[in-house]
Amino acid sequence: MISLVSIRDCKRKKEKVRMKKKALLTIGIIFSMVITSFNMNFENVDADGTEASEQYIVSTKNGELFKDIQTKYGDCISDEAEKAESLEEHNTTVLELPEKEAQQLEKKQGITIEPDCEMEGLGETEDNLTDVSEWNMQMINADENTEKSKDKIKVAIIDSGVDYTNGIKVAERYNLVPGEEDINIIYEDRTGHGTAVAAIIAANSKDKDGISGIAPDNVELYSVKALDCENKAPLSRIVDGIYWAVDKGVNIINLSLGTKTNADILEQAIKYADSKGVLIIAAAGNDKQIQYPAAYDEVIAVGSVSKDGNISKNSADDERVELAAPGEAVKSACFLDGTLQVSGTSVAAPHVTGVAAVLWAKDKSKSKEFIRDLLKETSKKLEDGSGLIDLQYAQNKYDEFSKNYQEGIDNSDIIEKNPEKVENFSETDNAEALWGDAVHTSVSSSSGLTGVELKLLYGALIYSDHDEDKSNTTDTLGDDAGISRMTYNWTFHGYGYGQHHTFDSSRKLLHKHSTKIRSNYIANTMQIYKLAMNYKNGIYTRPDKVAGIYDSDYEVIMDRLNADSKNGIVKTMRPSGGPVKINVKENGEKEKEETGVLINKKTVSWDKIFNFCVKQSNTNTTVSNNNKNRSIVILGLALHNAMDTFSHSSCSSDGALIKHDKNTSTGKKLADDASYYPNRVDGAVKVAKSILKKYQNERELSASDFNFSSVYKPYQGAFTLIGYAEYMNRVSPSYFKSNMASIDQLSTGIKE
After folding, report:
1. Final residue of a domain: which of 370, 389, 404?
2. Does the annotation count 672 as an active-site position?
3. Among residues 101, 299, 351, 724, which is most buried (max CB within 10 A)?
4. Of 97, 116, 135, which marks where a domain is finished?
5. By residue range, what is the domain housing residue 55?
6. Is residue 193 among the annotated active site residues?
7. Catalytic residue selected from 346, 605, 631, 649
8. Which one from 79, 149, 193, 306 is the annotated catalytic residue?
9. Tens digit of pLDDT for each residue in 555-595?
10. Catalytic pick from 9, 79, 159, 644?
């Protein structure tokens, strides 16, 4: 489950910790006066975090000095740094300090201190466009020219995360966004930015409507989720991601992000990666000015080319832009095996990364300098002096270039310059781009939803797992309204068998234990879906129970969604008069309009639930608080429950329960780890897409919708859904009897 913690409550909890730390700190300071091993002469600093005004990245090359900083300023360490293990390993941390104290610390010899400035993904929006072919692959001669190799190049993508879609395989994930550590990998990427980048490099779709990247058979992907739901991140997060990737032994780092600030600590991280033989590729920027880290000498700065073969009008105009690649209306992948179109130097950079990986995989003993020079010398020269990458020509000239190449000298004349002219694809159709309000408009799953509606659905998928504060054991609603009513109840998470939660009358969590839970995850999904269909059709009455659902589960669902048994109206979802507006101001603040409905002396309004889902969807568009959109939110709850059955109610082929907890040996979340029976995750996606299609066609769900062998056949009994047979028998005895063979393959046969 996801556990997103609000900033407000995070500060409350942290303040309690700080009080304890401060007491210990006082003792530590007295003790440190006796110690003479570090003669630093620090001035006394009030480390009370409540006085902090800004975040600063603090770094030193002296390990003992770093330990002293941690001791003296331990109470000022930010939440970002507390989870950034790679930063600490490199004697770097993030402190919350008043400007005056930061200036005092800056004067200390051997310390580098800088503001933790903001970085963001470098993408653009284009409106009113139609579907397009994969012209980008044709332009760089990568459409059918990728040579497979037995060796794989390790590529790290430091971005917004990577959704499990279009055959993209991720070897390891590192999530740095506070509160989003447990987001399901099916919809991990809150903006689509990182997924689009990854797809260009390594998508391997078996769907005719999907896409294939440049090097799916040549790379091993490592994903660092650093950008938040607005495609932004503090500098410290990016630096931490770089250190983590390098220490994982990656060969290439893709950075489709940037900042106008030249920060010494960022440069240090880049130089560290370079010293370890890592090839760094970064987006140059979209406002004519080159950004960092692309501007550093150690980095290949990548500009954007439009379909007519010319440098994009907003692409960085600087002699440091070394290479270029397609960056306008490029087809890529998104949520639930969908496709969409993206633009910006963010998109151009992964083209270079993919081509570099293919070339490097031919011989991993080659240096990063060799690959960089090969890319440059085989490119098609553009008017600004940069070169458009050409995979086919690079492969053709590889042996000749390798034979004559010498490290450390000018190798610009050892092969013939690329004689091919840059092709013009301006006659091809365009398509809607990513990172705008109409994101996901071209989803190939034929969901029938608009881009904004799909983003709203995305927000609703996260809703079930969100809890304002896990330490808050009562069923209060707080600012996020009713979230805790979902988080701690298995009814909304596909629990069919496994972890059972026990509460007292005030919803205080008493304990957890493994038991046989009588909760029909199939029927639960069908029940929530039925409520969604009711709202889609303008029906507000309390829906009848679906076949096979337990009475207790039915009551829980109705209670959690605040369905009034007396008058049959879902109170929180009753029409409340007008749209809800969520507008993001330039200073980052959000303004909203909402109306409330008083339930049990608590303000629990549809607007609060709706506002949450809109915020999670990251759209600045006014989203109407109408029946259709309310229906979409409830549909999101149904989809979440359906997909969670594969995380919470499945076991391995040997009958061992697939646990949601961290594996102590790998540190991975097994329930959401695609490498652990990947067909289980594929099945979840296929079932979700099937449910979306039924919603589009306004058809009710049936028991057979969960016999995913009809949707996804290659499972071959690799894993099983615990209790499937029993639950199918309760939902539909006739279906159970007529489909015994397939049901036996899907179920362990465990009985209550």
Report:
1. 404
2. no
3. 351
4. 116
5. 7-116
6. yes
7. 346
8. 193
9. 778 767 765 544 444 444 433 333 333 333 444 444 443 33
10. 159
